[in-house]
Design goal:
By secondary structure, the chain is mostly helical. The chain has 3 helices and no strands.
């Protein structure tokens, strides 16, 4: 997925440079091209593409937060040791 995003970014950068350096082009047109063809679509695609990874991370975090004892106390000995007097 990342290689596709890098490739698309390269293509959009070349389009923006062509827009800026063309005799009838403008820098404003290059910025608009960069934003509308590059940044906006890439953010949407990368966000949607990372949905499974975010869901797995959220599920793993919720499983880590579960306290199996339910008491909130740290685990220790079940029976306190008996002290013997000398």
């Amino acid at each position: 997925m990342l290689i596709v995003a890098v490739g698309w970014g390269y293509v959009v950068l070349m389009m923006a440079l062509a827009e800026a350096l063309e005799p009838g082009g403008s820098v404003l047109g290059a910025i608009v091209t960069l934003l509308l063809y590059g940044v906006l679509p890439l953010t949407i695609v990368l966000y949607v593409g990372g949905a499974r990874r975010r869901a797995r991370a959220r599920r793993a975090a919720s499983l880590r937060d579960v306290d199996p004892g339910g008491g909130g106390e740290p685990p220790g000995d079940a029976v306190a040791p008996v002290r013997e007097e000398p």
